[in-house]
């Protein structure tokens, strides 16, 4: 029974995904779907890793058939055949992400901005002077005419659009080696902070590594040297401009706080220094604002006086009654969009637990309260302890938040992670804490010093963190399939190199060998790239070379023993249907073609016959008896004279079968058996074979003796030799081969020796000579000066 056709579906637009496994496609014409490019006309569908989008195009390729249950693609009726992926019926794919560059002024390398520059490429790296007529402000960054800027490619992403590259003039590779850029200012400058509340002007030396731009700012940091948490107009003046007239007065100025956006300052404008333009945005110079956070990270601002509870957990109510939850009070040092008034109803009975959180990905801002009640404002991925659920900003989908166990002494607990090899299932453990990000994202990683791909998980119930090791993550993948190398096979036809097939079927045991299938002979190679097409390979046998595979083989079966088979690649096709004899063997064989040879040899046909009986007459049905002379019980089996297989006979040591009419012994043990044959069996009635009646003849009188050795040994040697002579007669007369000819010579030599020893007359008396040297040498060989011997010694 044939399987159900299966298919590979490849989106023309890579962003539409990649199939996880092969598909069945319902409603194909005649059950099959022709290969080609199709436009999808159905409604949106997301299955098996692919998004099927209306009017997008997909390549469909047949992949054989399968009996397994596979995912169903949309119906064939929802597809229409087109010319290719660029057919006018196919909607265009989403454009690639633009090039991204980091830009900074050569005289201000700490102030860096990331931009998209449309007409720049990934090789647009170097120092450029800006040729605009007027200053250009982009995302808070100012491009000054004739000033030099370092531009460096950093990848592809959607960022703020910058000026066109055509508005710049290339000056060199680095700021230090560029000759046409203006010199950076060397005159010291001081900072003038004028309060937007109109009651003070403060002067500072810039922080040693701080970057400042004129504008309107709100101070968020700790009040110091007269700075309050209000708005200021900042201007930058050269030393020599009143009131700081010389370097001595400059040196006496206090150092300004470092400028850290959203930490020490909040920017309202870096274009104008006019406070009046930001009256509504700047907090009141008189109001104090507070922020209340609950354990789930929900927060709001209020101007109600809760100054007595700063740094504590409280319960509150509003105009509608009690507000659920426990609330932590912090002084608001930023913008205050105050909501409703609240009333403190008391201290919270149970403060929030300080829990471990981890933010991975690309967040832009993280706000949380540490275990000591401090408001922490940071940027970038981080792992931390917080009394409240953190407030995180950034592009949705580009960051993840995970919550762990309660912190210990203000630190996240050390966790153990379980890493499982995608291919072998091997498990290792590690306490490397940043592995948590791969648990959150279900990512697959490769590790330095460890082969393969590894899935990272938290410990499950019953797992033991056994021998944790330190690991280094090299690469990150979305799945095991994306990480593991491609293992596929290329099969090249021995007769037609253009006939190439590819498969994922496991052919590892046939690499660099030639396999034979129903399609011919193919050389198997291992490949590590995505096959352009797939085939199901059914192997009948394998060979070392193409020559061996392309040969025709024949099976020669012994007429009298179906288990005696010879395989050959000699061309004996002319003898098919006949019976042959081959040189070096007395047996007769029938011939058949075969696909699966075993140790094929070269044969030479010596004779041909029409039938097996004509070539090798069937052996006679003999009456025989076997005796088990071994020390253990053994099982025996034979074919009777009617061709039927007997039941299994078990003989104990020294036990005999009795007389049986046997066509052929199938299971026996010549090395320890004794076989007695009593002549041909008789057939008095149809299918009823019986042993002949034998009348024992007494050959020796009781108490007879044998020459040279004891009676038992003499009879054993004589019987063995007799059986060998009998088998030789059976081979010469009927063509019955002896299965164990290796012992024949040994027993025949023993028989010759005892027969020679029997020729000696034990009764002969050797008469010694009476004298020695004066007499002739005796008939026994006695001589002078010789020891006297007897004849039978």
Model description:
Strands 13-8-7-12-9-14 form a six-stranded mixed beta sheet, with no helix packed on it. Strands 16-15-18-17-19 form a five-stranded antiparallel beta sheet, with no helix packed on it. The chain starts with a strand and ends in a 35-residue tail after the last helix. It has eight domains: 4-82, no CATH class; 103-172, no CATH class; 189-278, no CATH class; 290-406, no CATH class; 417-483, no CATH class; 488-546, no CATH class; 553-615, no CATH class; 619-698, no CATH class. The longest helix is centred in the last third of the chain and has 24 residues, at 711-734. Helix 6 crosses helix 7 (744-758). By secondary structure, the protein is mainly beta. The protein is built from seven helices and 52 strands. The model is unreliable at 698-702, 774-784 and 786-793 (pLDDT under 50).
